[in-house]
Amino acid sequence: MSSNRTLISGGLVVTAADELHADVLIEDGRVAALAAHGSAAAEAWTAERTIDATGKYVIPGGVDAHTHMELPFGGTSASDTFETGTRAAAWGGTTTIVDFAVQSVGHSLREGLDTWYAKADGNCAVDYSFHMILSDVNEGTLKEMDLLVGEGVTSFKLFMAYPGVFYSDDGQILRAMQRGASNGGLIMMHAENGIAIDVLVEQALARGETDPRHHGEVRKVLLEAEATHRAIQLARVAGSPLYIVHVSAEEAVAEIAAARDKGLPVFGETCPQYLFLSTDNLAEPDFQGAKYVCSTPLRPREHQAALWRGLRTDDLQVVSTDHCPFCFRGQKELGRGDFSKIPNGLPGVENRMDLLHQAVVDGHISRRRWIEIACATPARMFGLYPRKGTIAPGADADIVLYDPHAEQVISAETHHMNVDYSAYEGRRITGRVDTVLSRGELVVDRREYTGRAGHGAFVHRSTCQYL
Hints:
Blueprint (H helix, E strand, L loop, with lengths): L4 E10 L4 E9 L2 E7 L3 H5 L4 E4 L4 E4 L1 E6 L4 E2 L2 E2 L4 H10 L2 E9 L6 H12 L6 E7 L5 H12 L4 E5 L10 H14 L2 E5 L3 H13 L6 H6 L2 H18 L3 E3 L5 H12 L4 E5 L1 H5 L2 H4 L20 H11 L4 E2 L32 H10 L5 H15 L17 E11 L18 E11 L2 E4 L23
Parallel strand pairs: 1-4, 1-5, 6-9, 9-10, 10-11, 11-12, 12-13, 13-14, 14-15
Antiparallel strand pairs: 1-2, 2-3, 5-16, 7-8, 16-17, 17-18
Helix pairs in contact: 4-5, 5-8, 8-9
């Protein structure tokens, strides 16, 4: 037999749309067919390799649409390379990442994108794609946006935060949105009023408020809500869709919900850190709070209920990680005595699928919603569906066997991310990834890593499939 066939037998297949006891036939790296377990069709299948999924969920590989491998930030760089980061992603049941290529001020988009292609090429354990960060909106870069959409880089991130680094003013944002409206590119927004935040940072430091917890206090909820509101209005003026990244606060969710109630193409993403962590972590003594410094910042615990509600009501559609790890020793410590110098970011690419399964166990979301927010919707949002994000004939065989009963304790001792701490240290979780296939190839085989750098391929994306 010339083809390479694998049969996954006896599991509960869970997608965003269905749950069924079905066998899955894989041929040449793609899903060839599904049939009810024990049916005549399934019984007739033959394969070189059969994987027993009895007692396990068979789910699509996770799609993490927001990661930052090897990102330069504040004089240092994110500690995960594309090699270590995608290996950790695979261990956590994520089989596709969409990372961010960065345009530097004064340079072309092309230059930034080529730099990121070079970082990732030949190094990834699972498939990957890129968004483009626009740091310098001008006539030249606006024209380049059209070319990038043509080569499968179909989303562009702008920042209302970080003046002097990534910041764009309202005029630049409007121009980029107008361009996105004409070329089909989706505008992603870091919505925080960075100009006002910088004033509050300066005032806090002048008062001697230097601890990590002040990072959360100066980056106020109202300045996230205000920027979210402003981004929505600019998108309306431009006639452009809008995707708000890492939504952390109830007031920002309310702005997105109000826009969606008007029928506007506005979308929202949140992250596990906002669902499971809070300002209590930022306030941990002895500078331990630095581990939890990210932007938007962790919020008081009461915001969590609004985020869970937003995920249930579809006012928030996606959970990504914003994985951007910096080691506590030597990296986070750069901000001792000045919270504004702590590199912003948390590790999480390995924990997302597990934490969201825990949310199913805890009754926050349903099983199908778990797959929807972690696999199917990010794939549709960023033009990867149905190749990614589902288990259906013709889809890539990116498949995870998930043991819903296994128990684990999250810890830096056992995780595979290249960072010296875990944001979820000591947290008990029910559910664990058992086996992972990427395009039909075993990457994790019954809790043993069998993947390799270079298996992961660049995926050319179409435009947002919700428009």
